Amino acid sequence: MIGSCAIVELRKALSFLLILSTCVSGAQLRPQIPSLASFTPSDGVFELPSIVQIAVDSEYANQGSPSLLDFARTFQADLKEVVPYVTLAPISLSTSDPEHFAPVPTIYLTLDPSAQFNLYNGRPTEEGYRFQVTHNSYVIAGAAPVGVWWGTRTLLQQAALSLAQGAKTVSFSAGQGFDSPGWELNEMHLHASDNLWNPAFLYGEGNEGWKHLYAAFRFRPPAGSALEGLVPRKNESWAKREFLEMQATCAGHGVTVIPEIDTPGHSLVINQWKPELMEAGAPDHLNLSYPETIPTIKSIWDEFLPWFSATEVSIGADEYDAALANDYISFVNEMSTYIGLKSNKSIRIWGTNEPSQTMSVSKDITIQHWDFPGDDIPVQLLSKGYRVINSEQAFLYLDGKTSEAGQFPQQLDEDLLWSGAPGGRGWAPNVFSRTDATNNTSPDAANLRGAIFALWNDWGNNATTALEIYYQLARSVALFGEKVWAGSDVRATALARDQFDAAYPALNAAAPGQNLNRVVKPHHGNIIYEFPGAHRSLRTNVSSVGPPYTLEFSVKPDPGSPSAGLLFAGVDSRLHVANLTFEATGQLYPLGYILPADRFTSVAVRATREYTYAIIDGDEANPRYWYTLMDIWGDYMALGNMSFAAPSQSVGGGGFGGEIRDIRLTIDVDGGPPV
Fold first, then answer.
1. Rounded to whole angstroms, how far apart are CA atoms 93 and 267?
2. Is the pLDDT of residue 386 over 70?
3. Among residues 457, 470, 480, 523, which one has the fewest Cβ atoms lying within 10 Å of its Cβ?
4. What residues contact 45, with CB distance under 8 A and at least 6 apart?
5. Contact 48, 13 (CB under 8 A)
6. Can you name the residues that pair with 142 across neighbouring β-strands?
7. How would DSSP label each residue in 620-661?
8. What is the pLDDT at residue 6?
9. How many helices (H) and strands (E) does the chain have?
C-alpha cells in the first residue's frame, strides 16, 4: 500500500509494512485496524487453550501460491509470538466438519468456493472471508487463500488487544462475521530507478555535471550481462535471489510487489550508461526518436520481467516533455503491448496529461493520479473509461525528513485524513481534492481501483536510514490501511479517530514476525545491560536497541591508534572511534569530535526517533548532535537530524586499541534533550 523511492533501502522495514496492512474488528469486537465489515455475536466464547490445534482443510491445502497451507504455517508462528502461553500442536490436514472437532478446541482454515465478496464498485475480490466462532472452534473460510490470511489477522489482532488490556488468557466472543476490502489494492509499489533532481546539474548550458549526479537502478543483472553497466552502485541494488526472496516474503503476507522502471523521464541512470539515448538538453529524458532507445528499454524489461510475479508493472512515464506528446503516447502504448505479449502483464503509468490532439493513451493502461493541475483530472479519466489509482499529493505524499519549505509532512496528515475532505468528511480513495467536491467521485466508481501513498527520498542516499523510514511510516501505514480497506463515511463499522488512537499502540507493539521497534526487555529496571570495569572487546546477546535509549561509557584510545576501530557495533548501526562517527545503512555520519588519547573521556549517547546526540564529559549544557547534510534541489544545503538504533551487540573491534569502561545501556522514559 505504499509507494517508495528507489534510493530508500526498504528490506529491513518490509515485514512491518506487511503485518500492519491487515484487517480486523467490528462493532461488537475490540476496534482494530482496519475495521471489520460485520460481526453478529452469539452466546458463549472460544477460549484459546494452552495447547492450540490448527487444522487446514485437506481439500484446499495446496491451492494457491502462496497456498492455504503456506499461510497456515505463517499464522501458526505468528500466533505463538502474539500469545506466548500457547503450545502449538503440529498443523493437521482434516476433512472433518468443524463441529466434529470436540473435545479439542480447533482453529480451522478452509475455502468456500461459493462465497462471493465484492469491492465497493461491484467487482469480485479474493481477499474476502467469513468466520464463525463457537465454544469449540474458530473457523475461517476465505474466497481464496489470501482471504483466509486476512481472517487470521483478525484473530491475531483480537488476541493482541485482549492481552494488552490485561487478560491472562485469550478468549473470542462466539458469533459470525465477514469482511472484505472496499478497493482492490494491497501492494508495495517499488519505484526502482530514478535520480536526484538538480536543475543546475541537469540543465545548465554546457554543464556536464549530470554525468556525476546521483542516479541509481535497483535491479542488478547477473555478471557478464549486457546490462551490467546500467547498475553503477551494485551494493545499492537487489540481485535476483535477494529480490525474489523479498517478493516471496511480501506474497506470503498478502502483499503484491509492483516494480517500477521509470522511463522516458527520470531516466538519468540510463543516459549515464548510454549517453547516445539522451534527449538533447535534458539528460534525464530519453530521446524516443533515436533508433536504439526503445529497443534498449525493451531489453531492460526482457531481463527483469521474469523476476516479477505480479500481473502488473509500472513504467513510470511521468514528467516528460509536453512538446513531444505524440512520441510519448506512442512509446507508452508500444510498451503496454510489448510487456503484455512478453509476459502477459498489464502496465500502469503516472498521470501526465500530454497535450496531443491526435493520439491518446490506451485504456488498457491504469493511470496513477498524483497532481493537480499537471495531471489529467481523475473524474474525467474515469468517465472516459480509464482505471485510476489515487496518489494525490495533497493527501498522500511524504518526502523524507526534510521537505523543502514544508511542502510535504513527515507523516500522513492525520487531521486531513480524518476530516480534511470537502464538507469536513474523512479522506478515502474516492477523494482527490480537499477543496473542490466536483473533482471527487463516489466510493463505488466503476474504474476506481484504490489508492497508494508515496514516500520519496529526494535528498540523497545519506538522508535517512532504514529504521528512520520505519519510524516515519509505521503509524501512517496503519491509518492508511483503515482508509483504503473501509473508507470514510462508507461503512457504519469504520473506525472513529479515538478508536484508532486506542488500538494502534497495542497493535504496533504486538506485530509478529519482526521487531522493527527494536524493543529489548530490560535486564532490571530500565537497564538493558551494564559492564563495570575496563574492556577492550566483548560480545553481548543484544543485537540492537531502538530509541529512546542512553548508551554511557568512558573511553581511552591507545596513543598509537587514537582514531582506529569500532567502539560499538550492532545489526543496525556502528559507532567508530574516528570523529565519533555513526555508520548506518552504508553511510557515515561523523559527530566531529576527536577523542583524546591521554585520558578517559565519558560519553553518553542519547537517542529519540527524531535525533541522536552526545554529552561529552558530563557537559549537559552543550549537547552535540549527529546531523546529515542534504542538497535541496541543488539550491541550498540543509542539515537534518539523524536517529540511530543503539549499536549494542559488540564492544571494541575493527582494529580498536585502548580501553572502554563502565558501559551501561538503558531505556529512557522521555529521551528528550537536556534543557
1. 51
2. yes
3. 523
4. 135, 171, 172, 173, 174
5. no
6. 111, 129
7. TTS-EE-EEEEEETTTEEEEEE----B--SEES-TT--EEEE
8. 30
9. 13, 36
The predicted model gives 648-663 an average pLDDT of: 95
The mean pLDDT of the chain is 92
Sequence length of the chain is 675
Q: pLDDT tens digits for 559-589? A: 988 888 999 999 999 999 999 999 999 999 9
Structural domain boundaries in the chain: 2-6+193-460, 24-179, 527-667
| H or E element in which residue 191 lies | strand 187-191
Q: How confident is the model at residue 459 (pLDDT cuts 50, 70, 90)?
A: confident
pLDDT tens-digit profile of 470-486? 999 999 999 999 999 99
Query: Cβ distance 328 to 288 under 8 Å?
Result: yes
DSSP code per residue over 577-616: TGGGEEEETTEEEE---PPPSSS-EEEEEEE-SS-EEEEE
Residue whose C-alpha cell reads 466472543 in the numeric block: 173
Q: Are 155 and 107 in contact (CB under 8 A)?
A: yes
Sequence-ordered list of residues with C-beta below 8 angstroms from that of 347, at least 6 positions apart, any chain: 312, 313, 314, 315, 335, 336, 339, 340, 365, 366
Question: Which of 324, 630, 278 lies closest to 461 in space, CA to CA?
Answer: 630
At the topology level, CATH places domain 527-667 in Jelly Rolls (2.60.120)
CATH dotted code for 2-6+193-460: 3.20.20.80
Asked if 290 and 278 touch (Cβ cutoff 8 Å), the reply is no
Cα(271)–Cα(280) distance, rounded to whole angstroms? Answer: 11
Task: Indicate left, alpha or beta for 374 from its phi (over 0: left) and psi (-120 to 50: alpha).
Answer: alpha
Question: Quick one: pLDDT band at residue 10, thresholds 50, 70, 90?
Answer: very low
- Sequence-distant (6+) residues with CB within 8 A of 448 are 121, 183, 382, 387, 388, 390, 429, 430, 441
Listing DSSP states for 548-560 in one string gives SEEEEEEEEE-TT
pTM: 0.92
User: By three-state DSSP, how is residue 302 classified?
Assistant: helix
Backbone angles phi, psi at 642, to 5 degrees: -115, 140
* Cα separation, 395 vs 349, whole angstroms: 19
**Bond from prior residue into 66 cis (ω within 30 degrees of 0):** yes
58-94 pLDDT, tens digit each: 999 999 999 999 999 999 999 999 999 999 899 999 8
Measure the CA–CA gap between 442 and 182, rounded to whole angstroms.
12
DSSP string for 260-291: EEEESSS-HHHHHH-GGGEETTEEEEE-TTST
Which amino acid belongs to residue 425? R
In whole angstroms, give the CA distance from residue 29 to residue 158. Answer: 8
What distances in angstroms separate CA 588 from CA 213, 461, 576, 606, one per listed residue? 19, 11, 9, 18
Report residue 673 CA to chain centroid gap.
29
Pairing of strands 346-350, 366-369: parallel
Give me the pLDDT at residue 675, please: 36
* Per-residue b or e along 260-276, where b marks 16 or more CB atoms closer than 10 Å to that residue's CB: bbbbbbbbbbbbbbeee
Cell numbers given for 312: 502488473
CA dihedral 512, 451, 487, 500 (to 10 degrees): 40
